[in-house]
Amino acid sequence: MSEEKQGIYKLFLMKPKDAWYRLSKEEQRKLVKKDTELSEKRMRELGGRNVLICDCFWSTEDWLLFGVEEYPDIESVQKSTAWFRKSGWFKYFESRIILGTAEMPAELKFEGDDH
After folding, report:
1. Nearest to residue 67, comparing CAs of 43, 33, 45, 44?
2. Can you give the three-state secondary structure of 47-115, one letter per residue?
3. Spatial contact of 115 and 105, defined as CB atoms under 8 Å apart
């Protein structure tokens, strides 16, 4: 593995908690609008980007949406998570996160492969 820093991809799954459903539709709308604006600003500051956000509720009852974000390094991921914690977002949403790098795992690489 190279000593050069690799980008970090963050896959997240989200679903609302009971506190979300106790908000009025207007309060939900304002919270999402505020979060979207602050998230875009935060991503620019951290050098990251939103890759995609997908509606998956139609295919699973467990999760409302999933998305992928790209960060330049692990420190940026940690700062992003700290921001969400401080913002109170986890009061309204449960999430699961998987972090990874854009490469084939060593366990799946075999001698002579070009990948």
Report:
1. 43
2. CCEEEEEEECCCCCCCCCEEEEEEECCHHHHHHHHHHHHHHCHHHCEEEEEEEECCCCCHHHCCCCCCC
3. no
CA dihedral over 62, 65, 70, 75, signed as positive or negative: negative
Residues 68, 51 contacting (CB under 8 angstroms): yes
Decide: pTM greater than 0.70. yes
- 8: tokens are 């970090």
Cα dihedral 27→32→34→35 (10° resolution): 140
Length of the chain: 115
Question: pLDDT tens string for the chain (115 positions)?
Answer: 344 678 999 999 999 999 999 999 999 999 999 888 888 889 999 999 999 999 999 998 899 999 999 999 999 999 998 988 888 888 999 999 999 998 888 888 887 776 5
Element (H, E) at 13: strand 8-16
